[in-house]
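Lecture 7 notes: from sequence to structure.

We start with a single chain of 154 residues. Read the sequence below before looking at the structure.
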Amino acid sequence: MRRFAHTLCSTPEDAEDAAQEALIVLFRRIGTLRATAALASWMFQIVRNECIRRSRLALHRPVSGAGTEPSAEDAALASLEVERLVDSIARLPSEQRSVVVLRDVQGLSGAATAEALGLTRAAMKSRLHRGRETVRSQLRGPMDTGGSKVSWHA
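Now the structure, written as tokens:
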């Protein structure tokens, strides 16, 4: 579980916390598990979900050490954009969301993403493409058709 968490989570600390959280969930809910053969897949699913949750939280953490402070307006706009992006990713179907999070949020390679999710590279690429396209269309919104551009001339 720890090795799996280290491939999914963005930091070693998050990976350790995700593996520990999986053990806590196991301890609390072991009585609800119907088939003991499903234990391993259940644990990997818990670790994966915890890593995704921690990645979402990381998007909201402020980056420290920046040279200049952005204006309040720029900070508010950036926060709204991050919220829109996180919301768009959260609305993806789970098979697309997991690929987008591992590949684009956590920066795993295509091979590592496919291996972590038990997919072929072709299946991973297909899900990644569909997920990215869905996020793009959601971020464009209903007002932006993408077709006509307005140009301003003096």
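The first helix runs from residue 2 to 8. Keep this in mind for problem set 3.
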